[in-house]
Specification:
Helix content: 25-40%
Number of helices: 5
Largest sheet: 6 strands, mixed
Distance between the termini: 73 Å
Structural class: alpha+beta
Radius of gyration: 23 Å
Strand content: 15-25%
Order of helices and strands: HEEHEHEEHHE
Amino acid sequence: MRKLLSVGFIGVYLGALGLGLVSHMLGAWNTAHPVMYYIVWDMFCGWSAYDSRIHVIAEGESQTYYRLTPTPWGELHPYGSLGREHYDVFNNHAGQIGLNVLRHTQHEPISRIFVIEEAWAKKYNLQQPVWESRYDDPKDKLSYFRVRAIMLPDSQVTERYDSWMAHQAGRMFADNPRLQADSKLNQPVFVRETPRQPVGRPFGSQSHLRFLGTSSPSAN
């Protein structure tokens, strides 16, 4: 009986593995059932070597900048310890979080709202003892800041940009001499976003930002 169970388990395991490989190869049935997430071969291929966080910042008419996240009344942590704005990969809702903070706080007239992405190599997330056992260099975390969107106080989006990772991929694609030569010989290549935006700290040190205080819901 035990032998039959072992053979059955091995058969089911190899069958599921084969189904996942075929599904990945043919691009079929990937989303046929939630269980397919666990057997399709590429379930972890989207992991990145970089970590990122989202910062929502408002610019007042006096050119004073205010941090809108984390929100003054506390964050919603849907999965773990991160606030919900950090899960907005496609930048669809982070600006709305900032607008909600402005609606319920007292502040000077706001001219623009910025959604800023901060990215850094995940190796800097290592604990200090682990870092010292793996690297001889001091742990000097380097972050890259990039504007993802610019909004007006009426929620109109005036500018929108790709993530830092997508921007770097576009730059490598555009700066590749072989691809440039192929584009002249074959069908032209169009890059969605011209890599003109500088990478750095757009508002200087974060210590210059102010936090908005809470007020009654009727506040402007």
